[in-house]
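Good morning,

Attaching, inline, the backbone tokens for the sequence recovery test we're adding to the shared suite. The designed sequence is right after.
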């Protein structure tokens, strides 16, 4: 009886009093599908060589170099002014401590407390959106890692000469992003299952736990192991940075090729070594760069700077590991899962499943069990589909190369879809749920504030920060951009993987490309469908 009830209720929109964001209009969604269909047809008809843009290697925006103009001397000095970066870190850390204080001692009403408003609505949206322009620059001012470094080293920025850590190597089994993927899953489980986003106190506790984790890691292991192997936010921004238009790279690659001292890796007497163990002259991907600026300051040749490049250019011919592919799949699955949990059908569906589990005799917290079960399905299903698609592409391309390498390298195709859907989804929250932000900033802890009234919720619903029609257009453009970029990367990656030595087989490439592009098209279409649905507003 309850199973049939679940099937019925799951597809019935919630008729309760919950406030929902309106979804993208059907006409805009149809236009987006038409454009994506044309892009799909274009790439399927072009199985041959895809010319790589001259921007793939990147053109310098911070100094002289191949294909780059010189920059003003004052701008170069400003970029290498480490004290400016330290000042930014201190300001961000101070604001972070204010947020923690507001969460621990302020009002429990999430819409009135800076901890929940700034963390879940403003910070996470702005940080992800900024990836397009500045990559993982947030990591350079991240308060978790910087506060940990100040506590452990007891100085703001200069290198500590005396030992301050055991400096143990991370066990080989953990020297990958597996721990970061697990941390991301656990964080999402607490966020959505326990509703941390609606609890200022829990938000503050979570923030402090991240500081503790970074501090313990720094005391025990070498360099910034927490940043490279564990931090779910840093690794998310690192993979998302593949779509960034900028990257820290050598201004003149020949200078780095001739360098023997590698100050960018080892550091200097004043500057710490690269926290994530990168040699800037050999860095081809943004995945593990945290934009800390150590290499910029340490380089004796002043040969490191920001470079412009085509979004996704580093993903077109790059190689990945199986662990990195699993992280990207986790990132995609959880991004879509966040959208699913905000549909009007989510709560009635989970409640019905919970009642069904109760009838089976599972009486202990059946709601959380139901949530965990659905989350597991939403995680595993994309993994299984991706595995099947990769096997088809590998088979249709004549089984050239290792199937495991196909599984790893084709994961780059999924990054733009996940990133642009993530931004499009959060854009609706940012437009509607930051109304009244000035009041929160003036009263961070929300002392004396009452929960949002029905009239206030209705006012925020009707008066978003960004015009509703503009939000819809931006969301559709973002989905199209994600599909186009994924199709471009898929075209290049399949060609690379399907090439037998120096002889490219166009027929095999075309057949191998079809399941990959179709999968990306369906993922983008599902993301678009999620954006078309009314989305529940966070509670007040």
């Amino acid at each position: 009886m309850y199973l049939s009830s679940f099937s019925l209720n799951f597809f019935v929109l919630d008729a309760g009093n919950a406030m929902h964001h309106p979804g993208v209009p059907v006409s805009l969604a149809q236009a987006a599908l038409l454009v994506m269909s044309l892009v799909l047809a274009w790439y399927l008809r072009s199985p041959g060589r895809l010319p790589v843009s001259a921007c793939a290697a990147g053109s310098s925006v911070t100094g002289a170099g191949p294909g780059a103009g010189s920059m003003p001397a004052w701008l170069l000095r400003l970029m290498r002014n480490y004290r400016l970066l330290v000042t930014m870190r201190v300001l961000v850390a101070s604001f972070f401590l204010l947020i923690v204080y507001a969460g621990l001692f302020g009002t429990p009403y999430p819409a009135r407390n800076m901890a929940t408003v700034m963390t879940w609505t403003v910070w996470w949206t702005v940080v992800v959106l900024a990836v397009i322009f500045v990559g993982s620059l947030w990591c350079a001012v991240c308060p978790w890692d910087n506060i940990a470094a100040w506590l452990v080293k007891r100085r703001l920025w200069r290198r500590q000469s005396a030992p301050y850590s055991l400096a143990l190597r991370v066990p080989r089994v953990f020297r990958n992003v597996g721990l970061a993927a697990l941390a991301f899953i656990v964080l999402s489980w607490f966020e959505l299952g326990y509703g941390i986003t609606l609890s200022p106190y829990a938000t503050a506790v979570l923030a402090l736990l991240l500081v503790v984790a970074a501090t313990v890691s720094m005391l025990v292991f070498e360099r910034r192991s927490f940043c490279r192997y564990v931090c779910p936010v840093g690794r998310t921004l690192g993979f998302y940075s593949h779509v960034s238009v900028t990257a820290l790279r050598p201004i003149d690659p020949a200078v780095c090729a001739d360098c023997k001292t590698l100050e960018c890796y080892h550091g200097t007497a004043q500057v710490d070594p690269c926290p994530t163990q990168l040699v800037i002259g050999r860095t081809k991907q943004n995945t593990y760069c945290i934009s800390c600026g150590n290499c910029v300051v340490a380089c004796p040749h002043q040969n490191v700077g920001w470079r412009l490049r085509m979004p996704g250019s580093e993903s077109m011919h790059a190689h990945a590991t199986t662990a990195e592919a699993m992280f990207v799949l986790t990132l995609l699955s959880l991004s879509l899962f966040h959208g699913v949990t905000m549909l009007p059908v989510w709560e009635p569906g989970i409640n019905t499943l919970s009642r069904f589990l109760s009838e089976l005799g599972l009486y202990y917290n059946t709601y959380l069990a139901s949530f965990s079960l659905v989350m597991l399905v939403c995680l595993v299903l994309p993994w299984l589909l991706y595995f099947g698609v990769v096997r088809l592409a590998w088979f249709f391309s004549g089984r050239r190369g290792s199937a495991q390498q196909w599984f790893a390298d084709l994961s780059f195709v999924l990054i733009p879809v996940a990133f642009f859907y993530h931004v499009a989804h959060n854009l609706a929250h940012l437009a509607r749920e930051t109304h009244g932000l000035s009041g929160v900033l003036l009263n961070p802890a929300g002392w004396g504030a009452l929960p949002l009234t029905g009239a206030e919720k209705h006012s925020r619903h009707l008066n978003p920060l960004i015009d509703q029609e503009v939000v819809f257009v931006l969301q559709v453009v973002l989905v199209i951009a994600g599909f186009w970029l994924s199709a471009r990367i898929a075209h290049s990656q399949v060609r690379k993987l399907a090439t037998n030595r120096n002889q490219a087989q166009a027929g095999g490439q075309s057949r191998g490309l079809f399941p990959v592009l179709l999968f990306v098209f369906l993922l983008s279409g599902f993301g678009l469908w999620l954006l078309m649905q009314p989305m529940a507003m966070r509670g007040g």
